[in-house]
Design a protein that fits this description.
single chain; alpha+beta; glutathione-dependent formaldehyde- activating enzyme (gfa); binds zinc ion
Length: about 160
Amino acid sequence: MTALREGGCSCGAVRYRLTAEPLFVHCCHCTNCQRQTGSAFVINLLIETDHVELLGAVPVPVDVPRDDGSPQTIWRCPECQVGVYSRYGHDGARFVRAGTLDDASWVVPDVHIYTRSKVPWVAIPEDQPAFEVFYDPKTQWPPETMARWRALSASA
Ligand SMILES: [Zn+2]
Ligand SMILES: [Zn+2]
């Protein structure tokens, strides 16, 4: 399982290991994520910053403008510039880009968000919750995730 939680950038300078299961997995169909990835959506693993262990080069934070003006920082490899994770607001948590895992085949979205801008040819499986914009974590997060988030908020 450990090997499945390792990943990195394209050149191999940045390597990371997730030392816990993700808190929650977002599949985001918003226009910001579409622009940043050049694709139809991004898959983000929400996890405590403390559970992202860096094994190689230290990624460089880059502030990226978003349509609604709220801040987002993407950490990129200093060499090949691939973005490996980002932050929205809370510094205690990171959104790890699932596509940078060595093997992301185990990653399944817990929720689809911003489906208002989903491309029409992407079909969301019936058993995966989907929301036009964002969602209410209180109704979607399992108790373990809620408890870990509370611990995080308490320490921040
Ligand atoms: Zn790199
Ligand atoms: Zn998004």
